[in-house]
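Q: Predict the assembly, please.
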Amino acid sequence: MTEPASSAERPAPTRAQRHTRGPAPTLHDVAREAGVSLATASRVLNGSERKVAESFRERVEAAAAELGYTANVSAQATARGTSPVIALLVADIADPYFGLIASGVARGADEHGLVVTVAITDRDPARKARIVRALRGQRPRGLILAASGTQEPIEADVAHDLAEFSRLGGRVVAFGPGSGVERSIEIDNRSGAEALGRRMAERGYRSAIALGAAEGVWTSDDRLAGFRAGFEASGGAVVRTLRGGFLRESGAESMAAALADGVPTGTLVFAITDVVAIGAMSAIRDAGREIGADIAVCGFDDVPASSDVSPALTTVRVPLSEVGYQAFRATVDADWEQAPLPLDVVVRASTPGVPR
Amino acid sequence: MTEPASSAERPAPTRAQRHTRGPAPTLHDVAREAGVSLATASRVLNGSERKVAESFRERVEAAAAELGYTANVSAQATARGTSPVIALLVADIADPYFGLIASGVARGADEHGLVVTVAITDRDPARKARIVRALRGQRPRGLILAASGTQEPIEADVAHDLAEFSRLGGRVVAFGPGSGVERSIEIDNRSGAEALGRRMAERGYRSAIALGAAEGVWTSDDRLAGFRAGFEASGGAVVRTLRGGFLRESGAESMAAALADGVPTGTLVFAITDVVAIGAMSAIRDAGREIGADIAVCGFDDVPASSDVSPALTTVRVPLSEVGYQAFRATVDADWEQAPLPLDVVVRASTPGVPR
DNA sequence: TCCAAGTGCCCACGAAGAAGA
DNA sequence: CTCTTCTTCGTGGGCACTTGG
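A: Predicted assembly structure:
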């Protein structure tokens, strides 16, 4: 290689404008500069089975370096018929839940030299439908639907697009069950919540208020049902279920409403999400009540913030980043099988337990 | 349109394999199906100034719908010479700081029908260099560097790639100063931290410990310098500066080290980031000390978690999502000027003040 | 190793039809 | 009724790259 040469002594200084304004150098430019054919240049610069003689390879590489050539990914994609991208659909990237998942996906993608594009649904089904449709145009290798869905018919058109998507060779991975989806990542929300419920009942709680999202949303339904099952099987009773969303504010509002109606000391609040639980905690505090001995709170996910609030939040640990990584693997591995995702109940100070 | 028709009675059932396995329908297919030329189909389906007669337009649209056609973005990109993507480079997408920025970027991109691809540097300069280089191949419309950089020479190669990037027509937007960058988003870290320092001194603090990142990292340097300036101008003294990183753990470790050496009651801890501050808080608590009256803590950013920890964290509010949105605008607006980004000190319970 | 035929799409141009004088 | 002048569609070349022969 002759790279340390200053730009003054180029082999063939025909194109003086090379290092000035202008379009990106193309493979064509490299080939001409190296005095080889397009095919040869292509083969040395981009992965190909066929080998090329060392002398040619060197010349091409030198020319590429000298010109500052970078392959045009779009062109490669159209020529190859497939593009090196994984599309990730989340409800809200600022939510730590999705942030952690995204980091896992990104890690995997990165290991495989793929890029990940992120789209945000904002929990709007119509928007989700639009995005999925638009994403089809990208012809990504894989599509990961992390935004939790509903079982409503509103998702029917999305299902169609997803089916179409995988028919075209893309792999669709969704969280939770879903139609038109080949592979799905199952977070065992039900069992996790059940274990939490049981554990809480064992700690002496007998009466609980549940904070969920709208009916029909998988994650919410499963966690709610699981918690109730575990809690009631061990002697507790879920006395009330409030419906809201997945936002912090939603938790605060629901909790405020509950408090307005009166919440006896010793009550346990279960929120479908740590974020919601944290919102509830702030409402409890705002109402002048105490978290813990007075009103206990538990959540789900174990996002980082949960161990930092105080009292620290009892929750169910979900290995979110790992979940994201697995979702990625599901999009690329031919023979993929979901590895078990252990969910552990982690008891912290927000549920000190009640003396019986 | 005759969409409610079941797939049984299609107008021209010539190609039986249409709805089975196979490649995506191309513009060619649509044109043939509609009995028009490629050009006409292209004009109606993809934005073009030129108009086409209503009758033709309808036929093309019907054909497209019937075939389930979606334009191949890669092909469009190579033909047009530009792709509809904005690349976003962050250090860690699971960090709320970047999560919020990303959400702002995504919002903007979405308004303009652009997709955003996210790449993670993990705060590794070499990795950052690799990514920037790889991203060049994507020929994105814009490149947003949110990962905070250093002034070290290690960034030189990145600078070259960035310059090359913008020479090719892409717009590079970076946070903070940077070479090879056309536009930059300036968060006035220095002034914000200075205001915080002043305010803290006014509340009676006289001695502070600062928790920063490695020397040479812009954000860290600016915040540290600003805080010191404000705090000392109003009568305080920064007695020690510990170097770590931007992670929660880093804050915990640095603080633990400080505590091991002894930290007098009434000391204020300033962390360059809320996340770091929260880590410090946990270390303080672990050491059996009290946050607030004993050791006060303040941070920077005002991420959501800061108002949920308790005592709630005093900090400087940075409108992160708005910052992200602006960064996006900077990549697309021809005549862009940074709108002022107000930074406000928000005092909370973690700095109750000391009686003088 | 090179040639040439793709990959799916865009767009400048020329031609044909309709409308107006 | 003929000769412009628009309007609008189709032809062909091109984009940057891949791949079988």
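The first strand of chain B starts at residue 85 and ends at 90. Residues 36-40, 43, 50-53, 56, 75, 77-81 of chain B lie near DNA strand D (CB under 10 Å from a C1').
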